[in-house]
From TrEMBL, chain A:
This is ABC transporter ATP-binding protein. One of its GO terms (molecular function) is ATP binding. It comes from Parasedimentitalea denitrificans. Residues 7-237 form the ABC transporter domain. Pfam families: ABC_tran (PF00005), TOBE_2 (PF08402).
TrEMBL record, chain B:
Keywords: Cell membrane, Membrane, Transmembrane, Transmembrane helix, Transport. Residues 66-263 form the ABC transmembrane type-1 domain. SUPFAM superfamilies: MetI-like. PANTHER family: PUTRESCINE TRANSPORT SYSTEM PERMEASE PROTEIN POTI. It is a multi-pass membrane protein. Residues 373-393 have a biased composition (Polar residues). PROSITE patterns: ABC_TM1. This is Spermidine/putrescine ABC transporter permease. The lineage of its organism: Bacteria, Pseudomonadati, Pseudomonadota, Alphaproteobacteria, Rhodobacterales. Residues 348-422 are annotated as: Disordered. It is found in: Cell membrane. Its main location: membrane.
């Protein structure tokens, strides 16, 4: 890959007393990658980041940065810089002093620091605002100052702990592309933490999906989205409709599942589970809302689903149809708006068709609650 | 509507009474510093004088006391703020379950009577001194050391309370951020935590200095060869009080007013500057052309500060050229006349009495006991008035009006006749 410094987590365990916050994590992050940890609140993302930056000693296992074991090396000696969840800008220092704090530590002169600060301020499009105090900046500006401060330390690895979570939607979207832009420019490894799957998919080279201290899957965005490893990953990343049932017949890498509500349905077995699903196993079948298309009412078959329409929404680019789903939950169907006429079916049954390749079969497991 | 205005009036009345209660004694005391009688009093007003200030500045013991108080104060400030900061930091680091206990222990010295702290400091360090085999003139038994140590025991707790309040608002992520950016723990402390704590440290230092300056009951056991101002004052008062002490009080009040106004002016100024920065444009900030508001503009405290400073300078100026000698001479003269008049009256009365007694003795010899004390004219209220005794005596005191203040006889301190004679 590129010349950047990689990070490896080897059999990493982190416990707080009896509570296991991270369970046997094994992750290889390539140098120069934009790598995301994605998972719901409290799953141990921050804990992993703190172990990488040196604020936490792992209970077991190792953190390697650039191939060097970081055991016993304090946070001020590691080639990492962390952008905190709440940014933690020094409130009494001016913006330029904040940005060049790492230089001040090394005894750089005020003139040098000022010069470097101006360069970085240019880069984050805040030229001339160096003399303000952090409290005099807007949320997005603070964000950028925090990034500049971390970059000024010239780290090999930049760690970002949900840096965008405090921003409003517009700004968040803007900052996403800006972050990606900066990462490409400086070429260092970014480890990014988020519970927002959109953020993870749009920005990252690779994503690790976490659930309650366990890493379920590591892969690029497309793989995570199209070929999830576990029921949790399938339900947490993007929207998905679930059908529970038992395995009826396995045919190569496809499987026939006897679903509780729609009879026998065919699906592709997720690639990591090929050969692991046997007849009679509890299974789950996932179909994305956009994977459905309309079919003549009442068509029977192993890739047709019929259900009653509860609610309809027009969203501009798609029609959203909410149908009677499993266990009281609604099943969502999104049909692209291609200018076709669309009459309401509210309260009536409707038949939908899907491509077997777009339905994923997984062993039954915990679903994301979000 | 009527109720409303009534309420407002009563609030104003209440406020007036409240401030009179708070400030009245200070005002009266300040006035006595400028009145010429040698016992501090505001009324009757005799002559405007500044002699009590020069008396104050010529009083070796007071000056020495001030010097010692400042020495002790500086020592106490250093030690208490350092200990208070350490204690406060500890409180935030300590295992949460122990926190309440730790807090109670560290606050305890405030609740222990100062006298007990004084005695125990003395006893403890005497032990230590002996255990180390040091003599009575060692540093450990020096009054300066003992007083600083003794006062700091409880003043450090005050400091800790002030510092903890600020520390609780400290985001420990700032420490982590600094470490993460490569700072050592010492650098983090110096460059991040300490600047954050600076306002609280300043408050704690002022508090510690004032607490040390006014302390009496701990110091009284430990001062040794370093009597502080409060000790000196207490000893002085035992031998009678002069307006020089009022003069000292006035100076202290004036300094307090200065400090308060200065502080207020500074805060207001900071607010104004912050407001100006908020509205400033980027170009103004960048080029440094931002026009900051002048020091006096819309800053009442600053204006007052300047006014008070001018007034002080004016008064000091007047004091150097002003001489109340003529006025004092006049007052002396009137007083001499008054005294003479009184002596005259007494003589007459005594002569009358003698005549009366003679007449009575002639008429009714055994009835001497029933004779009332004629001079005890106000009856019960004067029972303890030594003047009554003197008046009844045969000798007429030849009172010098001005010497009662520094008279050495202890009997005259509480003698109201002294008051009357001034
Ligand atoms: N110092 C600690 N002591 C005990 N438990 C802790 C500690 N720090 C974290 N935990 C626990 O570890 C788990 C993971 O915490 P972590 O902060 O890593 O979550 P997270 O994934 O970053 O969540 P969020 O998205 O809400 O920030 C949580 O259940 C938390 O309660
Ligand atoms: Mg977190």
């Amino acid at each position: 890959m590129s010349a950047g410094v990689g990070v490896n987590l080897e059999n990493l365990w982190i416990r707080f007393g009896d509570f296991v916050a991270v369970r046997d994590a094994n992750v290889n992050i390539n140098g120069g990658d934009f790598f995301s940890f994605l998972g719901p609140s409290g799953c141990g993302k921050t804990t992993i980041l703190r172990a990488v930056s040196g604020f936490l000693e792992p209970s077991e296992g190792n953190v390697l940065i650039g191939g060097n074991n970081m055991k016993g090396i304090g946070p001020n000696k590691r080639p990492t810089a962390l952008i905190f969840q709440n940014l933690a800008l020094f409130p009494l220092m001016k913006v330029w002093e904040n940005i060049t704090f790492s230089m001040e530590i090394k005894g750089a002169s005020a003139k040098e620091r000022r010069k470097r600060a101006d360069e970085l301020l240019d880069m984050i499009a805040l030229s001339g605002q160096g003399d303000k105090l952090p409290s005099e900046l807007s949320g997005g500006q603070k964000q950028r100052v925090a990034i500049a401060r971390a970059l000024c330390a010239e780290p090999d690895v930049l760690l970002l702990d949900e840096p965008l979570s405090a921003l409003d939607l517009k700004l968040r979207q803007h900052m996403r592309s800006e972050l990606r832009e900066i990462q490409k420019r400086v070429g260092i490894t970014f480890i990014y933490i988020t519970h927002d799957q959109g953020e993870a998919l749009t920005m990252s080279d690779n994503v690790a999906v976490m659930r309650a201290g366990v890493i379920d899957q590591i892969g690029d965005g497309k793989t995570i989205y199209n070929d999830p490893n576990t029921a949790f990953a399938a339900s947490f990343v993007g929207e998905n409709n679930v059908f529970r049932g038992t395995v009826k017949k396995v045919i190569g890498d496809e499987v026939m599942i006897n679903t509780n509500r729609s009879g026998d349905l065919m699906a592709r077995i997720s690639s990591s589970n090929v050969g692991k699903m046997k007849e009679g196993d509890d299974a789950m079948l996932f179909i994305r809302p956009e994977a459905f298309s309309l079919a003549p009412l009442g068509t029977q078959g192993d890739h047709f689903v019929t259900a009653e329409v509860h609610k309809e929404e027009f969203e501009g680019n798609v029609f959203n149809i909410f149908m009677e789903g499993e266990g009281g939950k609604e099943m969502k169907v999104s049909l692209p708006n291609l200018g076709q006429s669309f009459e309401s079916h509210k309260g009536e049954p409707m038949t939908l068709e899907y491509d077997v390749h777009n339905a994923v079969a997984l062993p039954a497991g915990v679903l994301a609650t979000e | 509507m009527k109720n409303f205005s009534l309420m407002r009036i009563s609030i104003w009345v209440y406020l007036a009474i409240f401030f009179a209660y708070l400030l009245g004694p200070l005002v009266i005391m300040s006035v006595t510093a400028f009145n010429s009688p040698s016992f501090p009093r505001a009324a009757p007003w005799e002559c405007l004088t500044f002699e009590w200030f020069s008396a104050l500045f010529q009083d070796e013991r007071i000056l020495n006391g001030i010097k010692n108080s400042i020495l002790v104060g500086l020592g106490t400030v250093t030690l208490s703020v350092a200990m208070g900061l350490a204690g406060a930091l500890m409180l935030t680091q300590i295992w949460p379950k122990l926190r309440a206990t730790y807090y109670t222990i560290i606050i305890a010295p405030i609740l222990v009577p100062g006298v007990v702290i004084g005695i125990s400091t003395l006893v403890f360090w005497d032990r230590v001194n002996r255990m180390l085999g040091l003599g009575a003139d060692s540093f450990l038994s020096s009054g300066l050391f003992l007083t600083v140590i003794g006062q700091s025991t409880f003043i450090a707790s005050y400091c800790m309370l002030v510092l903890v309040a600020r520390l609780q608002r400290y985001d420990s992520a700032l420490t982590e951020a600094a470490l993460d950016l490569g700072a050592s723990h010492a650098q983090t402390f110096r460059k991040v935590l300490l600047p954050f704590m600076r306002p609280a440290i300043a408050s704690a230092a002022v508090l510690a200095f004032l607490a040390s300056f006014e302390n009496y009951n701990t110091t009284t056991f430990t001062f040794g060869e370093y009597p502080t101002l409060t000790i000196e004052l207490a000893q002085k008062v035992r031998y009678g009080i002069t307006p020089a002490i009022s003069a000292l009080a006035f100076i202290i009040v004036l300094l307090t007013v200065f400090a308060a106004l200065f502080n207020e002016a500074k805060i207001r100024r900071q607010e104004l500057v912050a407001a100006a920065r908020k509205t400033a444009t980027v170009e103004e900030l960048e080029t440094g052309k931002l026009r900051l508001p002048g020091f006096l503009s819309s800053n009442t405290a600053a204006v007052l500060l300047v006014v008070v400073a001018m007034a002080t300078i004016a008064v000091v100026g007047t004091a150097t050229v002003y001489s109340p000698a003529q006025c004092i001479a006049d007052v002396k003269e009137t007083k001499r006349l008054e005294t003479e008049l009184r002596i005259q009256q007494l003589r007459e009365r005594r002569a009358q009495e003698a005549a009366q007694r003679e007449a009575e003795q002639g008429a009714n010899a055994p009835a001497t006991d029933t004779a009332p004390k004629p001079s005890n004219d106000s009856g019960f209220g004067n029972v303890f008035n030594p003047g009554t005794l003197q008046d009844g005596g045969t000798e007429t005191p030849e009172e010098e009006p001005d010497n009662s203040g520094d008279s050495s006889g202890s009997g005259s301190i509480f003698a109201p006749s002294n008051l009357q004679s001034n």
